[in-house]
Amino acid sequence: MTSRDDHLFTDEMLASFESSVSDVAHAETLPPEIYTSAEFLEFEREAVFMKEWLAVGRAERIANPGDWFTVTLMEEPIIVLRSKEGEVRAMSAVCQHRAMQLCEGSGNDSTFKCAYHHWIFGQDGRLLGAQAMEQTEGFNKDDYGLPTLLVEEWMGFIFVNFDLDAAPLAPTLERYSPYLSNYDLPNAVCPSTFTLEAMPWNWKVMFENFNDGYHATRLHQFVQEFCPSEMSAFPEPWNDDSNVVFRTAGYTHIDGGFNATHQVIMDVYPDLTDEERTRSTFALIPPMLCFGTGADQCFFFLVRPTGPETIDVEIGYIFHPSSLDDPLFEEKLVLSDVGVQVFVRQDQDVTEKVQRGLKSRFAPRGRYSWQEESHVQFNRWLVRRYRDAWPGGEQELPLKVVGE
């Protein structure tokens, strides 16, 4: 390791995480170095991203047999497809001959042919054809299929996992599922998404900002007065085996909307209770999905790190199908997006400045407000995985909570 590695991956650094996983009244923020270091992101690549369930998009994006799209996850190009049998699959997009990326974008195909030497792969990753290889001694097509990933669908989202021994995802999300049942998300509609590229902050800064109730009526003063910070709540109990961190955010009136009118624009999801129509939920399913609900729409960010201080963010909105039947849907969508972009611009400004500040010699290990309980839960999710993969062997540092 380099000297910088030695500075980061020490017993002292690992022990320092403990102060970030106590209860919110006593906890402090994570060390600034882990938001700026290329070495630490490489550690997270193996400790987190190559072991956890990664959200890659909505299942409706591949509605028909043969539909496929590609996504790059931590420099790994992946094909996500629906087979002719209707099964969702995921596999590496790297040809097993000379490592050329097989395809980009999206399409509909029964096979994938490498443009370089015309090796052909099936929807299950098997190598079906390899021209002029008959004189290669010991060559067997069965040995050169595309590596596959685990796949799971949850609430209309597709998740993949590089770890073929990973436990199922859905049981670890059960705390949050009841808050979504009346949205019928598998049958809801996401018309399209858009991607913000090379956003200049660390992926954890993005996650923390998305689920930060403390800033809601401060940074977003006036535009979010209907959903004030003090109406945030953090459902109990938090469980370290959970893969979702979420909070509820109450409204001052029914059918609030994140736009200048403070009212819904699209059709309200018809099965919502009055209680559900007077709150949002904000959830993290780390390390890639930020998800939120409102009375008339849900919204999601797919966060893809491209470096220690850069991310791409794919953003989408999800509506009840009746909203798309409205002749004015496109006009309403523009109005809705204008409202959301007010929040996005404000959030982009502060997250960029937070990232800049984290590189300062004066960057703090700050303290939390009770309205930031989600951050401590996210810390606990992270630190458990850091500890399990820390260089030098398994560490025995229980995640203690002050007062337990």
Strand order of the largest sheet: 11-17-16-15-14-13-12
Per CATH, the class of the largest domain reads Alpha Beta
Q: Average pLDDT, to the nearest integer?
A: 94
Categorize the overall geometry.
Answer: globular
Radius of gyration: 22 Å
- Class based on secondary structure composition and strand pairing: alpha+beta
Helix-strand sequence: HHHEEEEEEEEEEEHHEEEEEEHHH
CATH topology of the largest domain: Naphthalene 1,2-dioxygenase Alpha Subunit, Chain A, domain 1
Quick gist of this model?
The protein is built from 8 helices and 17 strands. By secondary structure, it is an alpha+beta fold. A 7-stranded antiparallel beta sheet has the order 11-17-16-15-14-13-12.
Output the keywords.
404 residues, 8 helices, 17 strands, Naphthalene 1,2-dioxygenase Alpha Subunit, Chain A, domain 1, disordered C terminus, globular, 2 domains, 7-stranded antiparallel beta sheet, Rieske Iron-sulfur Protein, 4-stranded antiparallel beta sheet, alpha+beta
